[in-house]
Amino acid sequence: MTDRVQSLRFHVQEALSGFRQALVMNLATLSTVAITLFILGSFLLFMRNMNENLKVLRSQLQLTVYLKRSIDEADRKSLVKQIESDPGVVSYKFITRDQALQSVREWMGWTDFEVRDNPLPESFDLKLRDGVDFDAFVRRAGAWPGVDDLSVGEKEVGALLKLLDLARSVGLLLVLVLGTASLMIIANTIKLTVYARRTEISIMKLVGATNWFIRTPFLIEGLLQGLTGAAIALVLLLSGYPILVSRLHSIAPFIRLVDEAGALIGLSWQLLAMGILLGLLGSLISLRRIAV
After folding, report:
1. What is this structure's pTM?
2. 3 state DSSP class of 216
3. How far apart are CA 282 and CA 223, in angstroms?
4. Which of 81, 164, 181, 253 has the fewest CB atoms within 10 Å, measured from its CB?
5. DSSP 8-class letter at 89
6. pLDDT digits (tens, 9 = 90+) for 159-178
7. What does the mean pLDDT of the chain come to?
8. Residues 287, 193: contact at Cβ < 8 Å?
9. Cα(275)–Cα(227) distance, integer angstroms
10. How far apart are alpha carbons 185 and 177 in whole angstroms?
11. Long-range contact pairs involving 109-114 (C-beta distance under 8 Å, separation at least 24)
12. Pick the CATH number of 62-152 from 3.30.70.3040, 3.40.710.10, 3.30.420.40, 3.40.50.12280
C-alpha cells in the first residue's frame, strides 16, 4: 500500500511539474475546456427549460370550436354529446356571443366600446388530453354538426418544437466543434510536455520503467486540465444562472425556469464527467502517437 501511495504521489508531482513547464499552453487549454463546457452547460440548461415550458404549453393545450350562426338547438345538443363522448376532451366550456365580445373588449382595452351587431359566433373552448393525436382530433372535430371553424392552439406548440430542434442541432454542432478543439489542444499540450521531458523519459526507460509508468503522469495532467476547466465552467454557470433566473422572472414571470438544486447538482456531475473525459481522451490521443 505504501509503495502505491508513493507511486501515486510521484505521478501527481510529475504531472504538476509538466503543467508548470508548459504553463502558457495549459492556460490556453483550460480556457478552451472551460468555454466548451460552459457552452455545453448553458445548452443543457436551455434545453431543460425549453422542455419544461413545452410541457406546460402542452398541458394547457386547447382548441376553440366556433359554431355556425345558423346552428339550431338540435345541432347544438348533438354537438355537446359529441364533445362529451370524445376521449380526447378533458373538459369544455360554452362561450356565448356576448361573452366572446366582452373578452375581446377586455383584451383590447375597449371597455366602453359599443357594438350594434355582434359579429362574433358562439364557441366551445375544449381542454384536450395530454398526448392526444392532435391532427386526428382536428379532422374529427371539423366534421361535428354545426361547426364552422376551429382555432388550433397546436401552432404555438409546433413553433416551439421547431425552435427546440433548431437549438438542439446548433448546440450539438457547437459543442462538437469546441469539444474537438479542446481534445486537440490537450493532445498538443501533452505532446509538448513529453517533448520537453524527453531526456528524463529516456533515462526512465533505461532503468526499466514500463510504458504505462511513464505515461501515467501525462494522463493525470490531462485529467487535471479537463477537471479544472470543468470546475471553472461550473463556477461561471452556478454563479450566473441564479442571476439570470431572477432577471427573467422579473421581466417575464410566466416563463418557467428550472431552479431546483437537484437539477443543478445533476448538471454539475455531467460537466465534471465531461471534463474528465476530455482530459483523458486528449492525453490518450497524444500518447498513442508517441512511443513512450
Report:
1. 0.61
2. helix
3. 9
4. 253
5. E
6. 666 776 777 777 778 778 87
7. 77
8. no
9. 5
10. 12
11. none
12. 3.30.70.3040
Instruction: Return the amino acid letter for 207.
Output: V
- Chain segment 132-150, per-residue pLDDT in tens: 777 788 788 888 888 888 8
CA dihedral 69, 70, 72, 77 (to 10 degrees): -40
Calculated CA dihedral for residues 80, 81, 82, 83, nearest 10 degrees: 50
Contact 22, 196 (CB under 8 A): yes
- What are the residue ranges spanned by the domains of the chain? 2-57+158-288, 62-152
Q: Which cell numbers hold the place of 211?
A: 510504458
Instruction: Considering only residues 123 and 131, tell me which one the structure prediction assigns the higher pLDDT.
Output: 123
What tens digit of pLDDT does each residue of 20-59 get? Answer: 766 677 787 788 888 888 888 888 888 777 777 766 666 5
Distances in Å between the Cα of 266 and the Cα atoms of 36, 123, 179, 209, 259 are 18, 46, 20, 40, 12
**pLDDT surpasses 70 at 114:** no
Give the count of beta carbons closer than 10 Å to the beta carbon of residue 15. 20
The neighbour count for residue 26, using CB atoms within 10 Å, is 23
